[in-house]
Amino acid sequence: MKIGAPREVFEGEARVAMTPDSALQLQKLGYDCVIEAGAGSKAGFSDAAYKEAGVSVVKTAAALWKEADIVVKVRQPDATETKKMRAEQTLISFFNPAANEAGMKAATKAGTNVIAMEMVPRISRAQKMDALSSMANIAGYRAVIEAGNNFPRFFTGQVTAAGKVPPAKILVIGAGVAGLAAIGTATSLGAITYAFDVRPEVAEQIESMGAEFVFLEFEESSQDSAATGGYAAPSSPEFREKQLEKFREMAPEIDIVICTALIPNREAPELWTPDMVEMMKPGSVIVDLAAEKGGNCKLTKMDEKIVTDNGVTIVGYTDFPSRMATQASTLYGNNIRHMMTDLTPEKDGVLVHDMEDDVIRGATVTFDKEITYPPPPPKVA
Length: 381
Ligand code: NAD
Hints:
This protein is of the alpha/beta class.
């Protein structure tokens, strides 16, 4: 069978779902690989590099979708792409099934089986295919780099002949995958880093990355109720008030805030309020990774960078992984390659779509002309 990666059509998207390296691995599984010309160019992978890795290059997206039995993509397909889907084809891509009824209907009509990368269950066995985590890791890292790029001082404290420099103070709100990556990056650059999460169980992880867990004096039972199934649930108004009170206390001293707090299937909670922004020193920076879901800071403008009247820069970009397209494509390509390994038990270039496999079942959103989203809860943890 043939696996193909088209050029991403979403404006500004620089990632690609197959790299020359991942193509080599896919060939070891018995597949032929094909890309659309230029598919990897924005991520630093030339057509020549693919050819050298044994990948054939076709000129158009139409030819790619026609030739490939398995299409691998980064962004959910747009209408021009769903039209190219065909029977007995498998698409592996981010697909946003919760808000993409039309895409799932188009796929069932075409007879395409869709595996949605954001639906890979977050269980140990599936970590190697967990593209949400690999991309969140990049976003967390890049958020700190972006903050540094807009911050007019050092992160690390220094004593130099020209004067003493205090270290920057960074607060990371939300310590999931992106938040922990941000903490690791901030501490490695020498900043004094604080982090807060509603899930008290992450305190240990925060501290192991070199940051200080911002502790709230609050009844244990209420903090516990804020956590469900590994993800956060909305906090009680009392808890939120306590949290905001703490942040207000910290705001005048904090130089950089990295916001990553999210609650599945909801708007992002507002946690860094306009009065806190007002209290920050000129030159301070907020990078709001929750921008796509409305932002943890109300003043954030999605996909923009603004500077407030008091000189605080607020970055609301939503394309951090694409801004590190080589790294992101490499890790995403690996996630896909690992999924293909599970889908190819005999390493014979034949995809076996086993709906009894928890991971494959969980990620499959259309199969055999039926919508199979949402999946049943996984049986194994
Ligand atoms: P996410 O992106 O959904 O949320 C980011 C963080 O924001 C979470 O840590 C959440 O607790 C926090 N948050 C929500 N509301 C908040 C508030 N009001 N104040 C402060 N913080 C708030 O999270 P994620 O990175 O996708 O990870 C979520 C969970 O999934 C974690 O428990 C993580 O360990 C788990 N996970 C498991 C696996 C695996 O086992 N394969 C892989 C990745 C993540």
